[in-house]
Amino acid sequence: MTAAAIQLHDLQKSFGLARIIQGVDLSIEQGERHAIIGPNGAGKSTLFNLITGKYVPTAGQVFMHGQDVGGLKPYQINRMGLSRSFQITNIFAKMTVFENIRCGLLWSMGYKYSFWHLINRQRAVSERADEILENINMTARRDELAGVLTYAEQRALEIGITIAGGADIIMLDEPTAGMSASETSYMVDLIRKVTKDKTLIIVEHDMGVVFDLADRISVLVYGEIIATDTPQKVRQSAAVQEAYLGSALEEAH
Amino acid sequence: MSVDNQSLAQRRAPLVPIRSALPWLIASGFLLLLPQVFPSGAGLTIMNQMAITIVFALAYNMLLGQAGMLSFGHAVYMGLGGFFCMHLLNQVEYNDLYLPLPLLPLFGGLFGLFFAFLIGSFSTRRAGTVFAMISLGVGELIAACSIIIVVFFGGEEGVSGDRTMGPEVLGFDFASQLEVYYLTAIWLVVAALGMYLFSRTPMGRIANAVRDNEERAEFLGYSQRYVRWISFCASGFFCGIAGALFAINFEILTEENLNLATSGSILLITFLGGVGFFIGPVIGAVVFTLLQTVLSLYTEIWQLYLGILFVLTVMFFPFGLTGLIAMHFRPWNLGKFGLLVRPYAVMAVPALVFVSSAVAVMEILFHARHASIGDEEMNLFGLTINTHSQVPLLVACVAVVVSFLVIKRLAPGLKEAWDEANHQERGAP
Questions:
Q1: Do residue B219 and residue A83 have CB atoms under 8 angstroms apart?
Q2: Element containing residue B234 per DSSP (H, E)
Q3: Which of these, B352, B349, B364, lies nearest to B397 by C-alpha position?
């Protein structure tokens, strides 16, 4: 049996005395689409930052494809095939849309810190970047500065940058936050399309998006996972209802 | 701005597209012909100084503009490169080291690279203020060392040498200014081209990415620290080349080449020219050197004017002199540049009066305070003025006030014309 894409073992994180993540065990299989939900301040983003190397765990371990990645830097984890987006739009605002995507490609295409290749001569990079632009439907905006795009476009671009490097684990932090209903459904389709056959881990507040996209859902409350199951069962779980979902579900309907 | 405007069609370009090679060919031709226009020794010295400053400023901008790192101690890398080259020249002279002079800048570059590698190994761990403060500390440290370690830095006298002692190259012994000019010019083109091409490589682009958003770059597989370190080393290399060119030209290096004043002026030069443009530091260096060499012939308070120019640039044109020029591309492309000619011409009259009368006020005051006793006359714009009578000062003051009021009066009209010239009608291409 192949190792799980992501496996968390008794993962803990404290900031001073505040215990934000209090012993999380979680296994996410390869190709699974996994959503993490929970009320504000439950520690979803912290969990994300622990997995992606932004924070160093206080205790416990993170395994990626069976390999312990605890304490590695974000760039090292990224090189092993994990890529993420951010809750707050995080793009290169002063570069063009095309260049943003290209930045996401360079390492994975083996250019590393090269100063002996002229970038505009690298046909393979340009072609791949254009393909990705096509994929996220942004070819028309190719030469615009990323900073002047609309909010929804910037979020889509961020997803483009995230998937560009060909990582097989994609982690999206609230990709539809602040979007209108039509923008959200467009985004869900886009995410489904570009993360096909990849492992997707998503933090999201919009229950519609979560139940639409996810194979399994983990409910994080006060730094602990109180349930991990299929959307159907999570919806029916009494504990989840009590802790969190009830109110959110009511809102969704 | 560092925007890559290559369009889709252009990507299938020939080996060296004419359009991108043309500016370099023109610049090279220009450098070739300059000595015909300014053949005097003083002219050549100024041009050499300009070329050295351009290389230094471009190298500085690899950090500030390309990688977003503000260094307050960058004279160190040019200075150390220069000192080592000076010692190499002395080795050539006294110990028969075989080293053709045209290759010296390469060694200067390697020395600069070495020290950038060493110091960058710890100073580039963090960006922003931390980096700036470390660079300041290291700059001060090395400058202090230069006084203390007399064996190497020569104390207050500095280290001097003779560039002509090496083997002749193609019959040149580099005794004449003109030969040194061409040597400097060739290295200028080589170094500038190198730095330009560096900005177009994956490394150069990722340096931009780290500048704009270091966290995002880190999550794309790039270590922000290594990116900064490599940028720092590359900058150090080209600073070292500038240092070697300085050694060749002036045949002496002193503490002044390392100190904070030099580090500060290169920041000023780069900012004045415009950090967001590759050509920015070139323009900054040319303007600065001209002010420094030519203006200083006419007035003792040229540094005051330079300071005022710098402050005004930072306040009103944060993209520098190059930004000021680039602002006019849009009206030009819209075919509306003509709309600006008249308002500019109208504004030029009071502006000229304002500048010259303000200069008059400062010069008269300076002369009245600092001229030797009994020297009450000065020459100003071709007029002989008694600085101890009240009348000229009063006239100048009135002219300042009146011209300022006129400028204020005209400003809204100019603004209107500017907006109109930048406005693209709906539906227009």
A1: yes
A2: helix B224-250
A3: B364
Largest CA distance in chain B: 75
Model confidence at B392, in pLDDT bands (50, 70, 90)? Answer: confident
**A interface with B, Cβ–Cβ below 8 Å:** 52, 54, 73-75, 78-79, 83-84, 86, 90-96, 98-99, 102-104, 106-108, 111-120, 122-123, 126, 142-143, 145, 161, 164-165
Residue B88: in which H helix or E strand, if any?
helix B75-95
Cα gap B139→A123, rounded to integer Å: 43
Tell me the C-alpha distance between B103 and B101, whole Å.
Answer: 5
Q: Which residues contact A204 (CB under 8 A, 6 or more apart)?
A: A35, A37, A172, A174, A175, A176, A210, A213
| DSSP, res A1 | -
Contact B202 A52 (CB under 8 A): no
| Separation CA A171–CA A203 (nearest Å) | 8
Q: Do B259 and B145 contact (CB within 8 A), yes or no?
A: no
The model's pTM:
0.89
Alpha helices, DSSP H only, in A55-119? Answer: 74-79, 97-106
Residue A210 host element (H or E): helix A207-213
Number of Cβ within 10 Å of residue B296's Cβ equals 13
Of the candidates B68, B5, B318, the one whose C-alpha atom is nearest the C-alpha of residue B208 is: B68
The b-or-e profile of A60-89 (16+ CB within 10 A means b, else e) is bebbbbeeebeebbbbebbbbbbbbbbeeb
**Mind listing the pLDDT tens digit for each residue in B148-185?**
888 888 888 888 888 888 777 787 778 788 889 999 99
pLDDT tens digits, one per residue of A214-245: 999 999 988 999 889 998 888 888 777 777 65
ipTM of the complex, rounded to two decimals: 0.89
DSSP label at residue A96: B
∠ CA B425-B426-B429 to the nearest 5 degrees? 80
pLDDT tens profile A192-217: 999 989 999 999 888 889 988 999 99
Indicate the residue of A54, A102, A107 with minimum beta-carbon distance to B221: A107
Residue B304 C-alpha from the chain's centroid? 18
- Find the CB nearest A92 among B6, B209, B223: B209
Chain centroid offset of residue A20 CA = 20
